[in-house]
Every structure is written in structure tokens, then in C-alpha cells.
Amino acid sequence: MGGALPPSSKAIFSGARQAIAAPLAAAALVTGAKSFEANPILGSRLLNERGLHAARVALSHRVAEARRARLAHLLGPADRASFARDGFILRENFLPQASFAALVAQVKAYRAPTREIVQGDTVNRKLVVDGAFLKAVPALAEVLTSADWRALLRYVGAVDADPAVYIQTLLRHARAGPADPQTAFHADTFHPNVKAWLFLTDVAAEGGPFVYVPGSHRLTPERLAWEQQKSVTARYAADSDTRQGSFRIDTHELGALGLPPPHVFAVPANSLVVADTFGFHARGPSRDPSLRVEVFALGKRRPFMPWRGYDPITTAARGNAAALLWRMKKIFGACDKNLSAFDGG
Question: In whole angstroms, what is the distance from residue 227 CA to residue 59 CA?
Fold first, then answer.
């Protein structure tokens, strides 16, 4: 028989969906799931008032600290101290000049289909770094397999695994639209996480630089209390990023957390920044239309896994991690033109 289901049947199906969803929502507690909106347990006001989110934050940091301690041999004492103090490591003149010149020339010459995401008035264009890219751009393959690159990304990310890598182009004021939402200071997620930027262009202070609040990666009592306070109402926040678990913070709140003013990375090309993006960071404002090109890496792993190495979900063959993540997360709209990362339009 056709037709609509009777009310009793609708109730049965609704109850069945809830019965199936409940254990899945509960299982997400031990993963990197962070959306307060999508998961009724993570977003529960009652549970977060009683410390659910704060407990996940605290545990993930203890686990990351233990993993990072087992990777301490990768970096010298000065780099470890710099990271412990600031939450980032800056290396200007990261590559020998000849190697950097070769890298820029090869990236400029490489043309491939790009994928873009529009963020307010900013266009974020990415070229995925996969095996084909590395064959065409061997200078980048040398960077990604170098001991220095690997050590920095592994130590800061607290995981002995390769990150996903892209060539990223940020076109600021490239279209009509609201302000770029990434210019608001935010933490990417609730646990330690690594991102890196090897800038292929000079970055001016008024040209959309990367900005980071030094020391904001540390889980102080003040920060943990702030996390709990934010979690209680996160599910109903006005901005979607907070609802999805990327908490925003106003600059006037930093002092109450014992944090200093943000550091602006106005740096020359061939500078590398590796940062824990649990720390508060943003894209700085751009006074005029600007173009920023960089090798961009991000390493995400399941935060409660105690071992430092292989994660079957987030670890992939070297050089193909970004391509695999790309297929798993179709978050970008495809562009049907072959472009260079340095093309302005």
C-alpha cells in the first residue's frame, strides 16, 4: 500500500533513528569530533556545565604532551624552549637560497586544476600535493623529506606521521563579500594540532599576514575555564564556526587569560612558521588586495591515541596524505581552469 506513513509508524522510525544515533554520538567522545551542533552529547549544555568538554580538552593535552615528550630528541633545546614559550617556531631563511629559488620557479611553472573556497571577500585556492605534484616539483619533495621539516612538524604536532600538504594561495579582497571569517582570532579545535606555512612570497604587515597569540597553546587554568564557559552555549552560538567547535575570541579577552598581544608574522619569503593551532591565531587584515602564496601543511590525528606513530585513519603514504584527505572531505568546489599558484585571478 502506498501513501504517507501513519503517525505511529513515524514515531517508530524516529525512535529507531534516535536509538541508532545515540551510541554513535557517544562513541564520538573518544575521537576528534568537535561539532557541538551535530552531536547532541558534545553539545549538551547540562553535560558541559558538568565538565564534559573541559575533560576532553584536558585529557587530549595530557596525551599530546606524553607523545611530544617521546619526540623530544628530534629538536634541540632552543627550539623546544621556543615552542614551549610561544606555541610556534619561526625559521627565516629556512632553505638555502638556491634551493628556495628552484622551489619557487618550479611551483610557478606547475599548472593544475585548483580547488577554491570562498571565505568572505577572500578566495583560498589550493593545489593538492600528491605524487604527481612531487614528480613535477622535485624541489618540494626535497623539502618534505628533509630532516628539519620532518622534525619540526612531528614535534609540534606531537605525532610521528606526515601531514597533508598543499600549495595555498590567499587572494584577499578578491571579490565582493563580508569580512573574511578567518580574520577573527580562533582555535582550530580542542586539542593540540599542527599547521605550517613556508611562505613563497614576502608577507607585509598590512598584506594579510599570519597572526598568532604567543603562549595561547598552553592549557592554563584560565584557558580551561574559558573553554568550559564557551562549551556551555557553543551549540547555540551565533557564528557557525563556534558551533562547529572552532571557538572565537575577541582581542579584549586575551588579557583576562594572561595572554600578550598577538604576534604579526610580517616576514620575508623563505620563512617557515610551524604552530600549534590550539593556540589562538588568525589571518591579519589586508589593507589592499593582496596575494600570499605558501606551502601549507596540516597534521590532524585522533587526539586520544597514546602512541606517537601510525594512525590508520590520518596517516597515509608520504606525499599522498593531502590527496587522500581531499577525497575523504569534499569541502572545496572544483575550478575548471588549470592555474598556477601565483596567478592572481
Answer: 13
Q: Is 128 exposed, middle or buried (0-12, 13-18, 19+ CB in 10 A)?
A: buried
Task: Name which of 49, 84, 62 is nearest 230 in CA terms.
Answer: 49
C-alpha distances in angstroms, 313 versus 29, 168, 226, 272, 324? 16, 24, 30, 27, 10
Give the contacts of 41 (CB within 8 A, at least 6 positions apart).
25, 26, 28, 29, 47, 52
DSSP symbol at 207? B
Overall size of the chain counted in residues: 345
**All cell numbers assigned to 48:** 558541559
Place of cell 593538492: 128
The one-letter amino acid code at 334 reads A
Distance CA(163)–CA(157), nearest Å, equals 9
Determine contact, residues 164/298, Cβ cutoff 8 Å: yes
Question: Which CATH number is associated with domain 8-339?
Answer: 2.60.120.620
Q: Which residues contact 234 (CB under 8 A, 6 or more apart)?
A: 36, 43, 48, 53, 242, 243, 245, 247
Unique residue bearing C-alpha cell 628530534: 74
Is 77 exposed, middle or buried (CB count within 10 Å of its CB: 0-12, 13-18, 19+)?
exposed
Per the DSSP assignment, residues forming a β-bridge with 248 are 186
Task: Read off the pLDDT of each residue in 321-336 and give the average, rounded to a whole number.
Answer: 49
Domain ranges, ordered by start, for the chain: 8-339
All 3 cell numbers of residue 264?
604579526
Average pLDDT of the segment spanning 249-257: 96
pTM: 0.87
Q: Does 4 score more than 90 pLDDT? A: no
Backbone dihedral angles phi then psi of residue 157, each to the nearest 5 degrees? -80, -10
Of 314, 287, 313, 283, the closest CA to residue 298 belongs to 314
